[in-house]
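Re: [help] complex structure
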Amino acid sequence: DAGVTQSPTHLIKTRGQHVTLRCSPISGHKSVSWYQQVLGQGPQFIFQYYEKEERGRGNFPDRFSARQFPNYSSELNVNALLLGDSALYLCASSSRGENTGELFFGEGSRLTVL
Amino acid sequence: SQKIEQNSEALNIQEGKTATLTCNYTNYSPAYLQWYRQDPGRGPVFLLLIRENEKEKRKERLKVTFDTTLKQSLFHITASQPADSATYLCALGARRGGKLIFGQGTELSVKP
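Output below.
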């Protein structure tokens, strides 16, 4: 079975641009979460979606938005990119909306903002 | 604010020894604590989950303890191997919701 897939794997943008990152969860998983991981730090929670509804939002500006589609795939959008948005963006899926089980992470999308 | 601290310095040990990693937290009462392994350029991989009412959990060469009084978790890898070299992340979760709060990770290097 395929794991969590993310695209693109790497991308380079310039300040002020917009980016869309995509995630396909493991088949049967209805929860998708997004995390930002800056080099040398642990992942930081951005959003969680469960059954297409937002279940949680981290301490990120409104430039960050996300949505989940009927097939449970998800998009993370970041507008007006800043240099500080350079990071590894991780998507994780789980079968439940709660913290009662493991998260399955994708390999991430490495965003570089110049 | 909530804070999680893991061994800030890299941990270097000899093959066959037991590696012990520490995760301390403040201003938080997690219902669950998870440990993940992360290799360079890869996504984290789940290792173990322990609940607030559990003191210890084992899986093969891995052992996790959870002391809610000390607000600390210890992660042990026995009979360590060079293949265990990676960054290990602890993460805390509340009783409700799917948000995990991660520590900064501890880099473990096992030398042959």
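The first strand of chain A starts at residue 5 and ends at 7.
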